[in-house]
Design a protein that fits this description.
about 475 residues, about 70% helix
Length: about 475
Protein backbone atom coordinates (compact mmCIF):
# COMPACT_ATOMS: atom_id res chain seq x y z
CA UNK A 1 0.00 0.00 0.00
CA UNK A 2 1.70 3.19 -1.15
CA UNK A 3 1.77 6.60 0.52
CA UNK A 4 -0.91 8.06 -1.80
CA UNK A 5 -3.44 5.42 -0.73
CA UNK A 6 -2.64 6.00 2.95
CA UNK A 7 -3.03 9.76 2.49
CA UNK A 8 -6.35 9.29 0.67
CA UNK A 9 -7.67 7.00 3.40
CA UNK A 10 -6.71 9.44 6.15
CA UNK A 11 -8.44 12.23 4.23
CA UNK A 12 -11.59 10.14 3.80
CA UNK A 13 -11.60 9.29 7.52
CA UNK A 14 -11.19 12.94 8.51
CA UNK A 15 -13.91 14.21 6.18
CA UNK A 16 -16.18 11.31 7.12
CA UNK A 17 -15.63 11.95 10.81
CA UNK A 18 -16.58 15.61 10.44
CA UNK A 19 -19.74 14.76 8.47
CA UNK A 20 -20.81 12.08 10.96
CA UNK A 21 -20.33 14.49 13.85
CA UNK A 22 -22.86 16.80 12.21
CA UNK A 23 -25.57 14.23 11.45
CA UNK A 24 -25.89 10.45 11.54
CA UNK A 25 -27.49 10.38 8.11
CA UNK A 26 -24.25 11.74 6.67
CA UNK A 27 -22.82 8.23 6.79
CA UNK A 28 -24.80 7.63 3.60
CA UNK A 29 -23.39 10.81 2.07
CA UNK A 30 -19.91 9.38 2.68
CA UNK A 31 -20.98 6.04 1.14
CA UNK A 32 -22.51 7.74 -1.89
CA UNK A 33 -19.41 9.86 -2.48
CA UNK A 34 -17.24 6.74 -2.41
CA UNK A 35 -19.46 4.52 -4.52
CA UNK A 36 -20.00 7.29 -7.10
CA UNK A 37 -16.22 7.74 -7.37
CA UNK A 38 -16.71 11.13 -5.71
CA UNK A 39 -19.28 12.05 -8.36
CA UNK A 40 -16.94 10.76 -11.06
CA UNK A 41 -14.03 13.08 -10.33
CA UNK A 42 -11.80 10.61 -8.47
CA UNK A 43 -10.68 7.23 -9.74
CA UNK A 44 -11.40 4.60 -7.01
CA UNK A 45 -7.99 3.06 -7.65
CA UNK A 46 -6.42 6.27 -6.36
CA UNK A 47 -7.53 5.36 -2.84
CA UNK A 48 -7.78 1.57 -3.11
CA UNK A 49 -5.61 -1.29 -4.29
CA UNK A 50 -6.95 -3.68 -6.91
CA UNK A 51 -7.68 -7.19 -5.67
CA UNK A 52 -6.50 -7.21 -2.07
CA UNK A 53 -7.91 -3.90 -0.94
CA UNK A 54 -10.74 -2.31 -2.85
CA UNK A 55 -13.70 -0.07 -2.15
CA UNK A 56 -15.74 -2.94 -0.66
CA UNK A 57 -13.37 -3.07 2.30
CA UNK A 58 -14.04 0.61 2.92
CA UNK A 59 -17.75 -0.15 2.81
CA UNK A 60 -17.29 -3.00 5.27
CA UNK A 61 -15.35 -0.73 7.63
CA UNK A 62 -18.25 1.76 7.57
CA UNK A 63 -20.76 -1.04 8.14
CA UNK A 64 -18.83 -2.36 11.13
CA UNK A 65 -18.40 1.15 12.54
CA UNK A 66 -22.11 1.93 12.30
CA UNK A 67 -23.11 -1.41 13.85
CA UNK A 68 -20.59 -1.11 16.70
CA UNK A 69 -21.90 2.39 17.41
CA UNK A 70 -25.42 0.92 17.61
CA UNK A 71 -24.89 -2.13 19.82
CA UNK A 72 -27.54 -0.91 22.24
CA UNK A 73 -30.13 -1.06 19.44
CA UNK A 74 -29.45 -4.61 18.24
CA UNK A 75 -32.40 -5.89 20.27
CA UNK A 76 -34.64 -3.81 18.00
CA UNK A 77 -33.99 -6.37 15.25
CA UNK A 78 -36.25 -8.81 17.13
CA UNK A 79 -39.27 -6.67 16.26
CA UNK A 80 -38.59 -6.02 12.58
CA UNK A 81 -40.89 -7.07 9.76
CA UNK A 82 -38.02 -8.33 7.62
CA UNK A 83 -36.27 -10.31 10.35
CA UNK A 84 -36.81 -13.74 8.81
CA UNK A 85 -35.81 -13.00 5.18
CA UNK A 86 -32.78 -10.95 6.28
CA UNK A 87 -31.62 -13.81 8.54
CA UNK A 88 -32.00 -16.19 5.60
CA UNK A 89 -29.82 -13.94 3.42
CA UNK A 90 -27.29 -13.72 6.26
CA UNK A 91 -27.30 -17.52 6.48
CA UNK A 92 -26.59 -17.78 2.74
CA UNK A 93 -23.68 -15.37 3.20
CA UNK A 94 -22.24 -17.50 6.01
CA UNK A 95 -22.79 -20.67 4.00
CA UNK A 96 -21.00 -19.22 0.99
CA UNK A 97 -18.01 -18.24 3.13
CA UNK A 98 -17.71 -21.45 5.15
CA UNK A 99 -18.43 -24.21 2.60
CA UNK A 100 -15.31 -23.63 0.43
CA UNK A 101 -13.16 -23.80 3.58
CA UNK A 102 -14.77 -27.05 4.74
CA UNK A 103 -14.20 -28.58 1.31
CA UNK A 104 -10.60 -27.39 1.24
CA UNK A 105 -11.34 -25.34 -1.87
CA UNK A 106 -10.21 -22.11 -0.30
CA UNK A 107 -8.77 -20.48 2.78
CA UNK A 108 -11.06 -18.41 4.98
CA UNK A 109 -9.31 -15.23 3.79
CA UNK A 110 -10.00 -15.87 0.10
CA UNK A 111 -13.54 -17.03 0.77
CA UNK A 112 -14.25 -13.91 2.82
CA UNK A 113 -12.66 -11.73 0.17
CA UNK A 114 -14.78 -13.28 -2.59
CA UNK A 115 -17.98 -12.64 -0.61
CA UNK A 116 -17.50 -8.86 -0.74
CA UNK A 117 -20.25 -8.33 -3.34
CA UNK A 118 -22.96 -10.30 -1.54
CA UNK A 119 -21.74 -8.94 1.78
CA UNK A 120 -23.39 -5.63 0.90
CA UNK A 121 -26.60 -7.10 2.35
CA UNK A 122 -25.11 -5.93 5.67
CA UNK A 123 -26.02 -2.36 4.75
CA UNK A 124 -29.54 -3.26 5.89
CA UNK A 125 -28.24 -3.62 9.46
CA UNK A 126 -26.20 -0.43 9.21
CA UNK A 127 -29.16 1.63 7.95
CA UNK A 128 -31.61 0.18 10.44
CA UNK A 129 -29.43 0.32 13.54
CA UNK A 130 -27.50 3.55 13.02
CA UNK A 131 -30.39 5.85 12.10
CA UNK A 132 -32.72 6.82 14.95
CA UNK A 133 -34.86 9.80 13.82
CA UNK A 134 -37.48 10.30 11.14
CA UNK A 135 -35.66 13.50 10.20
CA UNK A 136 -32.44 11.58 9.56
CA UNK A 137 -34.30 8.98 7.51
CA UNK A 138 -35.72 11.74 5.32
CA UNK A 139 -32.26 13.25 4.83
CA UNK A 140 -30.77 9.85 3.94
CA UNK A 141 -33.51 9.28 1.33
CA UNK A 142 -32.76 12.70 -0.14
CA UNK A 143 -29.14 11.64 -0.56
CA UNK A 144 -30.22 8.48 -2.40
CA UNK A 145 -32.57 10.39 -4.69
CA UNK A 146 -30.01 13.16 -5.32
CA UNK A 147 -27.55 10.52 -6.54
CA UNK A 148 -30.11 9.27 -9.06
CA UNK A 149 -30.67 12.86 -10.23
CA UNK A 150 -26.94 13.43 -10.62
CA UNK A 151 -26.50 10.25 -12.65
CA UNK A 152 -29.38 11.30 -14.90
CA UNK A 153 -27.80 14.72 -15.44
CA UNK A 154 -24.51 13.07 -16.40
CA UNK A 155 -26.32 10.73 -18.82
CA UNK A 156 -28.24 13.64 -20.36
CA UNK A 157 -25.19 15.89 -20.80
CA UNK A 158 -23.34 12.95 -22.35
CA UNK A 159 -25.83 12.88 -25.22
CA UNK A 160 -24.53 16.24 -26.44
CA UNK A 161 -21.01 16.39 -25.01
CA UNK A 162 -19.81 12.85 -24.34
CA UNK A 163 -16.21 13.28 -25.59
CA UNK A 164 -15.69 16.38 -23.45
CA UNK A 165 -17.41 14.83 -20.43
CA UNK A 166 -15.38 11.63 -20.68
CA UNK A 167 -12.19 13.67 -20.35
CA UNK A 168 -13.46 15.09 -17.05
CA UNK A 169 -15.20 12.15 -15.37
CA UNK A 170 -13.77 8.71 -14.60
CA UNK A 171 -16.94 6.93 -15.77
CA UNK A 172 -16.85 4.80 -18.89
CA UNK A 173 -18.63 6.09 -22.02
CA UNK A 174 -19.73 4.18 -25.11
CA UNK A 175 -21.57 5.13 -28.27
CA UNK A 176 -24.78 3.13 -28.05
CA UNK A 177 -26.54 3.75 -31.38
CA UNK A 178 -27.36 6.67 -33.65
CA UNK A 179 -26.88 9.86 -31.54
CA UNK A 180 -27.11 8.18 -28.15
CA UNK A 181 -24.26 7.63 -25.69
CA UNK A 182 -24.25 5.13 -22.84
CA UNK A 183 -22.62 6.07 -19.53
CA UNK A 184 -21.58 3.54 -16.88
CA UNK A 185 -21.95 5.24 -13.48
CA UNK A 186 -21.13 2.86 -10.61
CA UNK A 187 -24.00 1.55 -8.49
CA UNK A 188 -26.45 3.00 -11.00
CA UNK A 189 -29.70 1.60 -9.41
CA UNK A 190 -29.89 4.86 -7.44
CA UNK A 191 -31.79 5.89 -10.58
CA UNK A 192 -34.44 3.26 -9.80
CA UNK A 193 -34.82 4.70 -6.30
CA UNK A 194 -35.34 8.14 -7.84
CA UNK A 195 -37.90 6.86 -10.35
CA UNK A 196 -40.08 4.83 -8.00
CA UNK A 197 -39.87 7.13 -4.98
CA UNK A 198 -41.08 10.06 -7.07
CA UNK A 199 -43.78 7.89 -8.67
CA UNK A 200 -45.28 6.85 -5.34
CA UNK A 201 -44.89 10.35 -3.92
CA UNK A 202 -47.16 11.50 -6.74
CA UNK A 203 -49.59 8.65 -6.13
CA UNK A 204 -49.87 9.32 -2.39
CA UNK A 205 -49.93 13.10 -2.98
CA UNK A 206 -46.96 13.68 -0.69
CA UNK A 207 -45.54 16.30 -2.98
CA UNK A 208 -45.70 17.35 -6.60
CA UNK A 209 -42.88 15.14 -7.90
CA UNK A 210 -43.84 14.95 -11.58
CA UNK A 211 -40.58 16.62 -12.64
CA UNK A 212 -38.51 14.15 -10.60
CA UNK A 213 -40.62 11.31 -11.99
CA UNK A 214 -39.81 12.26 -15.57
CA UNK A 215 -36.16 12.77 -14.63
CA UNK A 216 -36.18 9.21 -13.30
CA UNK A 217 -37.79 7.88 -16.51
CA UNK A 218 -35.16 9.65 -18.62
CA UNK A 219 -32.41 8.36 -16.35
CA UNK A 220 -33.58 4.76 -16.67
CA UNK A 221 -34.02 5.07 -20.44
CA UNK A 222 -30.51 6.46 -20.90
CA UNK A 223 -28.96 3.54 -19.02
CA UNK A 224 -29.98 1.50 -22.11
CA UNK A 225 -30.58 -1.50 -19.86
CA UNK A 226 -33.63 -2.68 -21.79
CA UNK A 227 -34.46 -5.52 -19.39
CA UNK A 228 -34.69 -3.06 -16.47
CA UNK A 229 -36.75 -0.66 -18.58
CA UNK A 230 -39.28 -3.29 -19.60
CA UNK A 231 -39.38 -4.80 -16.10
CA UNK A 232 -40.14 -1.36 -14.65
CA UNK A 233 -43.03 -0.88 -17.07
CA UNK A 234 -44.45 -4.28 -16.04
CA UNK A 235 -43.94 -3.77 -12.30
CA UNK A 236 -45.84 -0.49 -11.90
CA UNK A 237 -49.36 -1.82 -12.65
CA UNK A 238 -48.57 -5.02 -10.74
CA UNK A 239 -47.63 -3.14 -7.58
CA UNK A 240 -50.62 -0.81 -7.87
CA UNK A 241 -52.95 -3.80 -8.11
CA UNK A 242 -51.27 -5.60 -5.20
CA UNK A 243 -51.34 -2.48 -3.03
CA UNK A 244 -55.13 -2.53 -3.13
CA UNK A 245 -58.10 -0.26 -3.57
CA UNK A 246 -56.28 2.96 -2.65
CA UNK A 247 -54.09 2.66 -5.72
CA UNK A 248 -56.55 1.37 -8.34
CA UNK A 249 -57.52 4.89 -9.40
CA UNK A 250 -53.89 5.63 -10.25
CA UNK A 251 -53.50 2.60 -12.51
CA UNK A 252 -55.02 4.36 -15.52
CA UNK A 253 -52.86 7.44 -14.86
CA UNK A 254 -49.77 5.25 -14.73
CA UNK A 255 -50.69 3.62 -18.04
CA UNK A 256 -51.39 7.01 -19.68
CA UNK A 257 -48.12 8.45 -18.37
CA UNK A 258 -46.25 5.43 -19.72
CA UNK A 259 -47.86 5.82 -23.14
CA UNK A 260 -47.01 9.55 -23.20
CA UNK A 261 -43.40 8.80 -22.26
CA UNK A 262 -43.05 6.18 -24.98
CA UNK A 263 -44.64 8.50 -27.55
CA UNK A 264 -42.25 11.27 -26.50
CA UNK A 265 -39.27 8.98 -27.04
CA UNK A 266 -40.60 7.93 -30.45
CA UNK A 267 -41.21 11.53 -31.53
CA UNK A 268 -37.70 12.52 -30.43
CA UNK A 269 -36.22 9.59 -32.31
CA UNK A 270 -38.15 10.33 -35.51
CA UNK A 271 -37.23 14.01 -35.26
CA UNK A 272 -33.54 13.18 -35.04
CA UNK A 273 -33.54 10.32 -37.50
CA UNK A 274 -35.71 8.19 -39.78
CA UNK A 275 -37.63 4.90 -39.86
CA UNK A 276 -34.38 2.96 -39.75
CA UNK A 277 -33.49 4.59 -36.43
CA UNK A 278 -36.96 3.82 -35.06
CA UNK A 279 -36.55 0.21 -36.14
CA UNK A 280 -33.20 0.02 -34.37
CA UNK A 281 -34.67 1.59 -31.23
CA UNK A 282 -37.49 -0.97 -31.26
CA UNK A 283 -34.93 -3.75 -31.56
CA UNK A 284 -32.91 -2.31 -28.71
CA UNK A 285 -35.74 -1.92 -26.22
CA UNK A 286 -38.58 -4.24 -27.22
CA UNK A 287 -37.53 -7.28 -29.24
CA UNK A 288 -34.08 -7.60 -27.72
CA UNK A 289 -35.25 -6.74 -24.21
CA UNK A 290 -37.98 -9.38 -24.22
CA UNK A 291 -35.48 -11.95 -25.52
CA UNK A 292 -33.07 -11.08 -22.71
CA UNK A 293 -35.67 -11.64 -20.02
CA UNK A 294 -37.32 -14.72 -21.55
CA UNK A 295 -34.41 -16.80 -22.80
CA UNK A 296 -31.26 -14.69 -22.20
CA UNK A 297 -30.47 -14.63 -25.91
CA UNK A 298 -31.06 -11.06 -27.05
CA UNK A 299 -29.00 -7.91 -27.22
CA UNK A 300 -25.60 -7.98 -25.58
CA UNK A 301 -26.22 -11.50 -24.33
CA UNK A 302 -25.88 -13.01 -27.77
CA UNK A 303 -22.74 -15.10 -27.88
CA UNK A 304 -22.18 -15.18 -24.13
CA UNK A 305 -22.99 -18.87 -23.91
CA UNK A 306 -19.57 -19.59 -25.37
CA UNK A 307 -18.02 -17.48 -22.62
CA UNK A 308 -20.13 -19.27 -19.99
CA UNK A 309 -19.59 -22.79 -21.33
CA UNK A 310 -16.88 -23.73 -18.83
CA UNK A 311 -18.98 -22.37 -15.99
CA UNK A 312 -21.92 -24.57 -17.00
CA UNK A 313 -19.63 -27.58 -16.62
CA UNK A 314 -18.50 -26.25 -13.26
CA UNK A 315 -22.12 -25.85 -12.15
CA UNK A 316 -23.11 -29.33 -13.32
CA UNK A 317 -20.34 -30.92 -11.25
CA UNK A 318 -21.99 -29.64 -8.05
CA UNK A 319 -25.53 -28.60 -9.00
CA UNK A 320 -27.41 -28.89 -5.71
CA UNK A 321 -25.17 -27.12 -3.19
CA UNK A 322 -22.85 -24.96 -5.29
CA UNK A 323 -19.30 -23.94 -4.42
CA UNK A 324 -19.81 -20.93 -2.18
CA UNK A 325 -17.67 -17.86 -2.67
CA UNK A 326 -14.62 -18.93 -4.67
CA UNK A 327 -11.91 -16.34 -5.20
CA UNK A 328 -9.98 -16.49 -8.46
CA UNK A 329 -6.69 -16.80 -6.53
CA UNK A 330 -7.87 -19.51 -4.14
CA UNK A 331 -6.80 -23.13 -4.46
CA UNK A 332 -9.93 -24.20 -6.32
CA UNK A 333 -10.14 -20.91 -8.22
CA UNK A 334 -6.68 -21.30 -9.74
CA UNK A 335 -7.57 -24.81 -10.88
CA UNK A 336 -10.98 -23.86 -12.26
CA UNK A 337 -9.63 -20.90 -14.24
CA UNK A 338 -7.65 -23.27 -16.45
CA UNK A 339 -10.89 -24.27 -18.19
CA UNK A 340 -12.62 -20.88 -18.05
CA UNK A 341 -12.59 -17.77 -20.19
CA UNK A 342 -11.97 -14.79 -17.92
CA UNK A 343 -10.78 -14.54 -14.33
CA UNK A 344 -14.01 -14.66 -12.34
CA UNK A 345 -15.65 -17.92 -11.29
CA UNK A 346 -19.08 -16.29 -11.13
CA UNK A 347 -20.77 -14.64 -14.10
CA UNK A 348 -22.58 -11.35 -13.60
CA UNK A 349 -24.14 -11.37 -17.09
CA UNK A 350 -25.98 -14.63 -16.42
CA UNK A 351 -27.39 -14.25 -12.95
CA UNK A 352 -29.02 -17.64 -12.62
CA UNK A 353 -25.69 -19.26 -13.46
CA UNK A 354 -23.93 -17.02 -10.95
CA UNK A 355 -26.40 -18.01 -8.21
CA UNK A 356 -26.18 -21.76 -8.87
CA UNK A 357 -22.37 -21.67 -8.90
CA UNK A 358 -22.42 -19.92 -5.53
CA UNK A 359 -25.36 -21.61 -3.78
CA UNK A 360 -26.50 -24.46 -6.03
CA UNK A 361 -30.07 -25.09 -7.10
CA UNK A 362 -31.20 -25.49 -3.49
CA UNK A 363 -29.64 -22.22 -2.40
CA UNK A 364 -30.93 -20.53 -5.54
CA UNK A 365 -34.53 -21.47 -4.76
CA UNK A 366 -34.06 -20.23 -1.20
CA UNK A 367 -32.58 -16.94 -2.44
CA UNK A 368 -35.36 -16.24 -4.95
CA UNK A 369 -38.16 -17.17 -2.54
CA UNK A 370 -36.58 -14.96 0.12
CA UNK A 371 -36.74 -11.92 -2.14
CA UNK A 372 -40.32 -12.79 -3.12
CA UNK A 373 -41.11 -12.88 0.59
CA UNK A 374 -39.46 -9.47 1.06
CA UNK A 375 -41.64 -8.01 -1.70
CA UNK A 376 -44.78 -9.45 -0.09
CA UNK A 377 -43.87 -8.00 3.32
CA UNK A 378 -43.22 -4.57 1.82
CA UNK A 379 -46.55 -4.51 -0.03
CA UNK A 380 -48.34 -5.55 3.16
CA UNK A 381 -46.46 -2.82 5.05
CA UNK A 382 -47.83 -0.24 2.61
CA UNK A 383 -51.39 -1.35 3.44
CA UNK A 384 -50.99 -0.73 7.18
CA UNK A 385 -52.01 2.44 9.00
CA UNK A 386 -48.68 4.19 8.48
CA UNK A 387 -47.57 7.50 7.01
CA UNK A 388 -47.86 8.11 3.28
CA UNK A 389 -44.10 8.63 3.05
CA UNK A 390 -43.54 5.15 4.49
CA UNK A 391 -46.07 3.67 2.07
CA UNK A 392 -44.22 5.28 -0.84
CA UNK A 393 -40.85 4.01 0.35
CA UNK A 394 -42.13 0.50 1.06
CA UNK A 395 -43.64 0.27 -2.44
CA UNK A 396 -40.42 1.66 -3.93
CA UNK A 397 -38.43 -1.14 -2.31
CA UNK A 398 -41.08 -3.70 -3.30
CA UNK A 399 -40.99 -2.55 -6.93
CA UNK A 400 -37.20 -2.73 -7.10
CA UNK A 401 -37.26 -6.17 -5.45
CA UNK A 402 -39.53 -7.52 -8.18
CA UNK A 403 -37.49 -5.82 -10.92
CA UNK A 404 -34.33 -7.47 -9.58
CA UNK A 405 -36.07 -10.85 -9.62
CA UNK A 406 -37.19 -10.33 -13.23
CA UNK A 407 -33.77 -9.24 -14.54
CA UNK A 408 -31.71 -11.63 -12.39
CA UNK A 409 -31.06 -14.01 -15.32
CA UNK A 410 -29.48 -11.09 -17.21
CA UNK A 411 -27.65 -8.85 -14.74
CA UNK A 412 -27.38 -10.71 -11.37
CA UNK A 413 -28.51 -7.81 -9.14
CA UNK A 414 -29.36 -10.18 -6.28
CA UNK A 415 -25.76 -11.27 -5.80
CA UNK A 416 -23.74 -8.20 -6.75
CA UNK A 417 -22.97 -5.00 -4.91
CA UNK A 418 -23.88 -2.57 -7.72
CA UNK A 419 -27.53 -3.30 -6.89
CA UNK A 420 -27.42 -4.65 -3.33
CA UNK A 421 -25.74 -1.59 -1.81
CA UNK A 422 -28.38 1.06 -2.70
CA UNK A 423 -31.20 -1.47 -2.31
CA UNK A 424 -30.21 -2.63 1.18
CA UNK A 425 -29.68 0.92 2.41
CA UNK A 426 -33.19 1.82 1.24
CA UNK A 427 -34.58 -1.35 2.80
CA UNK A 428 -32.94 -0.67 6.16
CA UNK A 429 -34.17 2.94 6.21
CA UNK A 430 -37.70 1.82 5.38
CA UNK A 431 -37.62 -0.77 8.16
CA UNK A 432 -36.38 1.81 10.68
CA UNK A 433 -39.15 4.27 9.75
CA UNK A 434 -41.75 1.53 10.20
CA UNK A 435 -40.22 0.61 13.56
CA UNK A 436 -40.30 4.22 14.78
CA UNK A 437 -43.88 4.82 13.67
CA UNK A 438 -45.10 1.65 15.33
CA UNK A 439 -42.95 2.18 18.43
CA UNK A 440 -44.39 5.57 19.31
CA UNK A 441 -47.90 4.70 18.05
CA UNK A 442 -48.27 8.06 16.35
CA UNK A 443 -51.05 6.84 14.09
CA UNK A 444 -53.45 5.51 16.70
CA UNK A 445 -56.94 7.00 16.60
CA UNK A 446 -56.90 8.63 20.08
CA UNK A 447 -53.88 10.68 19.10
CA UNK A 448 -55.37 11.50 15.71
CA UNK A 449 -58.30 13.11 17.47
CA UNK A 450 -55.99 15.37 19.48
CA UNK A 451 -53.64 16.38 16.72
CA UNK A 452 -54.25 17.94 13.35
CA UNK A 453 -52.55 16.60 10.25
CA UNK A 454 -50.91 13.90 12.34
CA UNK A 455 -50.24 11.78 9.24
CA UNK A 456 -47.67 14.24 7.98
CA UNK A 457 -44.29 12.88 9.03
CA UNK A 458 -42.88 16.39 8.95
CA UNK A 459 -44.51 16.87 12.35
CA UNK A 460 -42.35 14.11 13.78
CA UNK A 461 -38.92 14.90 12.43
CA UNK A 462 -37.57 15.41 15.94
CA UNK A 463 -38.79 12.07 17.25
CA UNK A 464 -35.90 10.02 18.61
CA UNK A 465 -35.94 6.47 19.87
CA UNK A 466 -35.02 6.31 23.53
Amino acid sequence: MNISIITALISILLVGGILLSLNRSNIFLVVILMCSSFLGFVDPLSFTARGLFDIHLLFLMLIMFSILMSVSKIKDLNNTKLKIPILILLSLLCYGIIIPVLRDHSTLFYSFKSSKEFMMILWYFSAFLYIRKIKDIDIAWKYLIATGIYYTIVESVAQIAAPALSSILTYSFRKEFFVFWKVYPPFWPFILLLLFTSLYQVIFKIKNSYILLYVGVIGLFLTFFRSYFLASIAVIPLILILQGKDSYKYLSKAIISGVITILGILILTLTLGDDKVLSELTEKFITSGISEISDQSGGALAGRDAYAKGRYILRDNMPLTGYGFIDKDSKFGLEARKSLIGDLIGFIDKGTLDVTIKFGYIGGVILYLTFVYIAIILVRMSKEDVSDSLKARALTCASITIIFLIVQPVHAPLTNSFALLPYMIALGLTERQYFIEKKINIYKKPIKQKCNNIADTKSFKSVTLK
